[in-house]
Amino acid sequence: MKKLIWMAASVLVMVASCKKEAEKPSDAEDTIYAESGYPIEPVNIQNVKIKDEFWLPIIQRVQEKTIEYALEKCREEGRFDNFLIAGGKMEGGTKGVMPFDDTDVYKIIEGASNSLISAPNPTLEKLLDSLVTIIEVGQEADGYLTTWRTINPAKPPASWVKVDKGERWESLEASHELYNAGHLYEAAAVHYKATGKRNFLDIAIKNADLMVETFGEGKGKIAAVPGHQIIETGLIQLYQATGKKEYFDLAKYFLDHRGKPEHHELFGAYSQDYLPVVDQDEVVGHAVRAVYMYAAMTDIAAIEKDSAYLKAVNALWNNMVNKKMYITGGIGAKHDGEAFGENYELPNLTAYNETCASIGDVYWNHRLHNLTGDVKYFDVIERTLYNGLISGLSLDGQQFFYPNALESDGVYKFNQGACTRKDWFDCSCCPTNVIRFIPAMPGLIYSKDDNTLFVNLYSANTAKVELNDHKVEVEQETSYPWNGKVKLTVKPEKAGEFTIKLRIPGWARNEVLPGDLYHYASKDEAGNKIFLNGEKLEGGVDKGYFTVTRIWEPGDEVELEFPMSVRKVIADPKVEEDKGKMSLEYGPIVYAVEEIDNKGQFDDIQLTANEEFKVEMQPDLLGGVNTISNDNLTAIPYYAWSNRGVGKMKVWLPVKEAEEKTE
Description:
The longest helix has 22 residues, at about 55-75. Helices cover about 35% and strands about 15% of the residues. The protein is an alpha+beta fold. The strands form three sheets. Strands 3, 10, 16, 17, 18, 19, 20, 21, 22 and 23 form a ten-stranded antiparallel beta sheet that branches. Strands 2-6-7-8-15-11-12 form a seven-stranded antiparallel beta sheet, with no helix packed on it.
């Protein structure tokens, strides 16, 4: 906290000559909110208080360490200076080497704003006001905001951004002008929700109005689409925050015209700009761009009830989950282009699995669940959350993975020039994306629809939920993911009838992931149980949810038991890298073997037939984890690997031939 106070003071000094006080809207101000279009609504993080021994330390780590750390890195590398130089308050050229460095500041504000929603902090809020003031300095009079081009349009920070006349929008494939805007809009919308202040929102609106004037059909407008998607979801969030339909229309314009050569010179499959979006049925190209685009397409499907968009996102999702997703939930097989590979191309040592891609995939799957209520989308979310997403952040909150490999030989420098975690990157999109995402994680736990409460994830917390006809407080007690017992105490304001749907995790339904890309070597027949006030309930399973409709009384207790055992996973034989191998899981956690725990025998580890494992909680290891062990190996949760220096690691382990033939 002392460092945060010092940082706030330092930033205030930087902007003292141009600072103005941020104001909250008056009570008389009529704020318009557009409907989301989704039938299912997440329960706001403001109403979910985490007290969980797994997630609370991760969230606090980001709030108390990673945000401050990233702000200091942004200061060191000139992210703030660029806004001041662009606005004439400092002299100099562009600092940094990426055309999207501005977005690191936006994403930190978004993550800090999510923190303010769940935990008010006047010092942090004051710091954000200062950062917003810096951003405003860098905005041009007509709303344009990309600092490198304002500072010197003829000299982009990256050599791969080609310029000719030094004009705006001339290199949309690489300039990231519209990508920068997208992160600006998303951050401003969250900041407005968190603080009620319009200071950041007005900057975003001014920029979005310029976009509406600039792009589209008509005299003097530019017929083009962004090279790197995200402006689409940003515009839709601004539409929902302001009610200005022009923002939604521009988002749809960018999507409707993608992949149409008669409209613009196509950027190609790398940017998902090779076919009209409604005709795409295979996930290709840069994985982060892809999932951001698919999230926007899902928004269109929901808001406009657009069947063509819905058909396309369903086809794309099926292709990804059935043919291109790693066991950790990671996506993106290739370092070249940070891209999806061919169907079943899932290398381990050279896997990319960018942290940003996992985050974008969670955003997309959350939208799909809000649209359909289908349990399969949370099966993907849970697997990604507990494995391929949080692996991107170290246990001290100050080191990061950009790619997330599934194997390491201790030599290959897979992580942007390192074979372990790094403290920062020239391209720092992943650290700041973690910052914006993690504080919002509690918003995934519960959803609601009319008089139905969805319990999607298991984490100790208390939550207040307003259904159509009932106000309900719920309290979750659990040690998930280390064991599968959950207790839910239901406290309606008054007795009344409503429905609670409690998700049965995919692993507890003997499904590794939706589809057939992976399967368990054997089924766990222990069975899942649900108890109401101590009495076991039979049946009541509806499409992957325990579904209980009744007149709920204050103090009613629901208990769940999802039996956990060590599970062996087999990949589809079309995945060449994983032939003759299996991976280990316990509950939702994917396990890895690290050389440091298996000295002298790492290279000889094999899984054998009918072996038994011991699962043991090690409170002093890696922040407290369950380990899996026997005489042959010791395995730790995948997300925690590479927190103890450079070394070898494997997720997929060789098996003897007899074991390979199991089911």
